[in-house]
Amino acid sequence: MKQLLAKLLVLSTTVALLVSCGSKDNVAPRGTDNVVSDAASKTYVKPGEYDEFYAFLSGGFSGQLSVYGLPSGRLLKVIPTFSVDPEKGYGFNEETKPMLETSVGFVPWDDAHHPELSQTNGETDGRWIFINGNNTPRIARIDLGTFETTEIIEIPNSGGNHSSPFTTENTEYVVAGTRFSVPIPQEDIAISEYKGKFKGALSFISVDKDSGDMGLAFQVLMPGFDYDLAHSGKGKSHGWTFFTTYNTEESNTLMEVGASQNDKDFIAAINWKKAEEYIAQGKFKEVPANYVNNEYSDETHSAVTKRLNKVKVLDPVECPGLVYFLPTPKSPHGVDVDPSGEYIVGNGKLSADLTVHSFTKVLDAIENKKFEGEAYGIPVLKMEDILAGIVKEPGLGPLHTEFDGRGNAYTTFFISSEVVKWKLGTWEVIDRQPTYYSVGHLMIPGGDSAKPDGKYLVAMNKITKDRYLPTGPEMNHSAQLYDISGEKMKLLLDFPTIGEPHYAQGIAASKIKSKKIYKLEENKHPYVAKTEADAKVVREGKDVHVYMTSIRSHFAPDNIEGIKVGDNVYFHVTNLEQDWDVPHGFAVMKARNAELLIMPGQTETLLWRPQEPGIYPMYCTDFCSALHQEMQGYVRVSPAGSNTELKWSVGEVDEE
Ligand SMILES: [Cu+2]
Description:
Elements: H1 2-21, H2 39-43, E1 53-58, E2 64-70, E3 74-80, E4 101-102, E5 105-106, E6 112-120, E7 123-133, E8 138-143, E9 148-154, E10 161-163, E11 173-178, E12 182-183, H3 194-197, E13 198-207, E14 214-222, E15 226-232, E16 240-246, H4 255-258, E17 265-271, H5 272-280, E18 285-297, E19 302-314, E20 323-328, E21 332-337, E22 343-348, E23 354-358, H6 359-367, E24 371-375, E25 378-381, H7 383-386, E26 387-391, E27 398-403, E28 408-413, E29 418-423, E30 429-434, E31 439-443, E32 456-461, E33 478-483, E34 490-496, E35 504-508, E36 536-540, E37 543-551, E38 554-556, E39 559-564, E40 568-575, E41 584-588, E42 596-598, E43 603-608, E44 614-619, E45 632-638, E46 647-649
Parallel strand pairs: 14-19, 37-40, 39-45
Antiparallel strand pairs: 1-2, 1-35, 2-3, 4-5, 6-7, 7-8, 8-9, 9-18, 10-11, 11-13, 12-13, 13-14, 15-16, 16-17, 17-20, 18-19, 21-22, 22-23, 23-26, 24-25, 27-28, 28-29, 29-30, 31-32, 32-33, 33-34, 36-37, 37-38, 39-46, 40-43, 41-42, 41-44, 44-45
The structure holds copper (II) ion (CU).
Copper (II) ion binds next to loops.
């Protein structure tokens, strides 16, 4: 096995060298031969027409989620999630600052990996999309009515939230498995004490079926392995969630060698219905935990941070039947469950073969107590008892598998840089297509649900190299669209992405009901001004609240005097428009945060602390009308302690 590892390492270097050969400046792009001749007509969406699918691609290290149309590959929107966004004011305006609050204070950035659509009966339902924050462990929920981040929950006892937020069949839960094991509770100990002292928490976050509200239901305290990815069961395996593990060696240094020793690592199978029974019986420990839950209200247009201080923890040793280990070669990365819920594919990234387990056989082995042994008190099943089949030498470095709903599976191979199509049940390879280059995840709309829409496949590649015009040392990552409606896959399109498109989800456009405006009469923001008659300026000590309105093409008030150095000026701007797609912006000179971008019927607040006396222009930043350039005003700032009278102008025309 060590030999195999060495071979893989050599091969990966060779592939990297091959890839770099083609990267001389401005050489013609490679790999155009396999583009089918009708690719252009298959991806062409006429001007004015809509795409058939939404695709949601994570932004990876940008911390955002971007929305594309398929098959055109057109970028429709970037949704700020875990990172501040000066374009929309997210994380800069007073309303959304609490969204990025954590147990250690305001965190303006994270690394977002796996978007996951909400499901009903195992099918994507177009209500919400969830995404994980890796670095400061969190899960966000985005409302697909508004395409805005509406909730973020922090995950305590986690060392990095990678295997997340994969949903259960009816979005009962989204899950969060720690990538890194850490001492739980955290403590100041030598890193060499890793083995036995470090633990991995697998969290189940409940989702309210009507409101979508998330809450940390319970955590399962696992051995100190690394937990990589997850998928929940469906159909016959509904009630179970599967997490891949690596580093079952519990190594803590030179991991590329240390964590690659064992021939098999595990897929941890968690029976969460059993967990619910144990919780109901009170068989949990309630442990102190410091975490937050931030929620944005569509009524007040404001987010509130709730601080939480305990969590229910289940210990598998005290809860028989809660966790089983399925031995799987070798450092399995993705764990993917087919649409029927029977097959559990373990993508052992250092393995020559793909391993597929049978859920029926897993249940049978459990029932007959056919165990190979145990690890930290958790029963280990025998691989030969649970194996459904093996896909023999399909490629090098398997990472992830999705399904088309017609009995086929598609697996990405990072090292051999390809997507391989194979058949469930017969395990034979049907087709393979190269990717440009080094593919990570792939996405078929609904491809990890019970009802895939098996028309397109998107490969998300880690290396772009010579695919586009050079843009300096950094090239945007690349996604590639394949037509998978026939026997053979056909490459149709490359399109650049934002950040790292780590994973994606796709859904038929008809399943999403996008909201067009916020109704002004429903606006319950505490500082709303619903008409220009409500516009005013109120001083409360050093805090000055400007109740401002914007409508094509003026602000009310437009001139303000009596502001002093040392004041905290809150511009609460309400957009009075009630038409689709008429946002207004707001900026004031020398503001040290960002602009506001206010949707029709919405109120947003910019905090401004002027530092020197003078006249400060303010203006609308979003081109809104022919007289947009006239949409402006002034603020007069006087020295601290001066007695300039507070006054403002609303709708008065200049006198001669
Ligand atoms: Cu405007």
